[in-house]
Amino acid sequence: MMEEILAILLAVAIAAAIYYLMKKALTLVINAIAGLVTLWVLNYFSVLAWFGAPDIQISLVTILICALGGLPGALILVLLHLIGITI
Predict the structure, then answer these.
(1) Is residue 77 within 8 Å of residue 56, measured between CB atoms?
(2) In whole angstroms, what separates CA 54 from the centre of its chain?
(3) Which of 72, 80, 34 has the alpha carbon at shortest distance from 56?
(4) Taking a C-beta distance cutoff of 8 angstroms, is the pair 36, 63 a contact?
(5) Around Cβ 32, how many Cβ atoms within 10 Å?
(6) Does residue 20 contact residue 5 with C-beta atoms inside 8 Å?
(7) 42-63 b/e (C-beta count within 10 Å ≥ 16 → b)
(8) Over the stretch 59-87, which tens digit does the pLDDT of each residue have?
(9) Would the pTM of this model clear 0.70, i.e. be above it?
(10) Which of 18, 19, 23, 34 has most Cβ atoms within 10 angstroms of its Cβ?
């Protein structure tokens, strides 16, 4: 009887942990997509050309920064690019 109760408690704990991780992962994915879409829109409409700067090159590093930083990461990339620091 005790083994069944422990198995049920363990199953509930695993389900709760998976739910929590999936909820956080969904937030990270949405934030990453927002950052990447922002960079794409800026490049597509050549918004940075209005400020006299070339488009931001979308590379593995910029994708990782946007994936981890999301929209704030994209804004930091834009600000660094406008200052003259390219990544």
Answers:
(1) yes
(2) 23
(3) 80
(4) yes
(5) 21
(6) no
(7) bbeeeebeeeebeebeeeeebe
(8) 889 888 888 888 899 999 999 998 888 77
(9) no
(10) 34
